[in-house]
Design brief:
- It is a single chain.
- By secondary structure, the protein is mainly β.
- It has a domain at 21-26 and 38-154: Immunoglobulin-like.
- It contains one helix and eleven strands; from the N terminus they run H-E-E-E-E-E-E-E-E-E-E-E.
- It has one helix spanning 3-18; strands spanning 49-50, 61-66, 75-83, 91-97, 101-104, 108-111, 117-125, 129-139, 142-152, 163-166, 172-175.
- A five-stranded antiparallel sheet has the order 1-2-3-7-5, with no helix packed on it. The chain has a four-stranded antiparallel sheet with strand order 6-4-8-9, with no helix packed on it. It has a two-stranded antiparallel ribbon with strand order 10-11.
- The protein starts with a helix and ends with a strand.
- 20% of the residues are buried.
């Protein structure tokens, strides 16, 4: 294993560990139909997580946070904040949830040019474990894919059952079998 692959694995572990930290409000008022906060709600002064932008992606900046501790059978609000929409026609967002996680409400969003867009998405965990809310952003023919981890219950140790493979650009990836 080379230094770069060790660094990438360390960053991935730190990103997962960060998600267990409380998340904060961005000053946006809650919608009129917002429900009362659940006791498992996170404090509103913790920072949002900024999704990594990859070269050749949509260019839209995504920040997010879980506004409650995920629990089986309970709704977990996830705050999404989008910036840097530069195309005249705006950008589009498509949401999907992994198996074990149910997305409630609309699975698409339209992002206007030049404006910060904030949306709250609601998911329900069907079982303990790690599942992802997938966010696909398209702007001007370019796309980005971001996976937001939703850990329900105690975090199990990450155990790789895949194998390390080199990519043409020099990066290494771990291939994982499909569940």
């Amino acid at each position: 294993m080379n230094i770069r692959s060790c660094s990438l694995m360390a960053i991935a572990c730190l990103a997962l560990a960060t998600l267990s930290a409380p998340a904060a409000a961005d000053g946006e008022p809650e919608g009129r139909g917002a429900k009362a906060r659940h006791p498992a709600t996170q404090p509103r002064n913790a920072p949002m997580t900024t999704a990594v932008q990859k070269p050749g992606g949509s260019g839209v900046k995504l920040q997010y946070r879980l506004d409650a501790t995920p629990q089986v059978g309970r709704t977990t609000p996830i705050l999404l904040q989008f910036d840097r929409v530069t195309e005249a026609e705006g950008a589009t967002v498509r949401l999907s949830a992994d198996r074990g996680l149910t997305l409630q409400g609309s699975s698409t969003l339209a992002l206007p040019k030049g404006k910060r867009t904030t949306a709250t998405v609601f998911v329900v965990s069907e079982a303990e474990g790690l599942a992802y809310l997938n966010v696909f952003i398209t702007q001007g023919g370019a796309s980005s894919a971001i996976a937001i981890p939703v850990q329900t219950g105690t975090a199990a140790a990450l155990k790789s059952t895949g194998e390390m493979k080199p990519m043409p650009g020099g990066d290494n990836i771990i291939t994982m079998p499909v569940k």
